[in-house]
Amino acid sequence: MDGLTAVGIASIMPKPKILVIEDERSLAEVLEYNLEREGFEVMLAHDGADGLRQAQIKLPDLIVLDLMLPVKPGIDVCRELRSVRETREIPILMVTAKAEESDQLVGFAVGADDYVTKPFSTKVLIQRIKKELKRRAAADDTPPGAVYQSQGVVVDRVRHRALYRGEELNLTPTEFRLLETLLRQVGRAFTRHELMDAAIGEETLVLERTIDVHVKSLRKKLGDASELIETVRGVGYRFRES
Asked: I need a labelling partner for 116 at 20 to 30 A (CA). Which of 65, 133, 141, 241 fits?
């Protein structure tokens, strides 16, 4: 290895960058300490506007985003990040004291990839972060030729692009995985649980209705092709065969 030891190689490997946007400074510092111990590079922001600015400039590998923030609410931060090409694919793990079903659905609707309610275990949060980063790395390692298409809708896993009639679709990471799952097996009826497993993760505790929110948002972005995603009563959803 040209004299490089394993330690030397590890030392030059870039650390995954985590941006924590949290106004409770004591909690933010605890997360910073524990994440750094796990080998992450951590950036902190204590209000939504600063968090959005840092995300746009530093382009972290994952964002831990509090829902209730001063200056700019977490929902608005999430929505703005998802509306711009440079930041729309960054995984967002939303953290909040709000545990109501409606709050979770709103969070997923604007593009959150995962949702953790306070109080939470730091160890559990770190495992969620690692799982999401691992999922993203696996998607980036997809071999060439992994393109799925039907009736004008195309998902290109290599370039991480989704298109309809040649026009790029502005999808969140979860919507992208959902559309890919449906396109890979056109005509098959997937249960809500199967789609949650494929698009969100089987270890993530979410409501069954969460997948309905993602499907509704995906249909809206598909426009004229929205009817291609059919509801299978009593089961879930499928991509309609041509």
From this structure: 141
Pairing type for strands 153-156 and 147-150 reads antiparallel
Please say whether the beta carbons of 106 and 148 come within 8 A. Answer: no
pLDDT of 156 above 80: yes
Q: What range does the domain containing 183 cover?
A: 147-239
pLDDT digits (tens, 9 = 90+) for 94-104: 988 776 666 67
| Helix (H), strand (E) at residue 142 | none
Q: How confident is the model at residue 117 (pLDDT cuts 50, 70, 90)?
A: confident
Single residue among 112, 140, 168 that ends a domain in this structure: 140
**156 contacts: CB under 8 Å, gap ≥ 6:** 146, 147, 162, 163
Residue 1 in any domain: the answer is no
Which phi-psi region, left, alpha or beta, contains residue 161 (left: φ > 0; alpha: ψ -120 to 50)?
Answer: beta
Phi-psi region of 188 (alpha: psi -120 to 50; beta: other; left: phi over 0): beta
CA angle centred on 226, ends 223 and 229, rounded to 5° = 160
Number of domains in the chain: 2
Look at residue 203 and tell me whether its pLDDT is greater than 60. no
Asked if 200 contacts 210 with a C-beta cutoff of 8 angstroms, the reply is yes
Would the CA dihedral through 231, 236, 239, 241 be positive or negative? negative
pTM for this predicted structure: 0.62
What pLDDT digit, counting tens, does each position of 59-91 carry?
899 999 999 999 999 999 999 998 887 788 899
159 shares its domain with 130 = no
DSSP state of 46: S
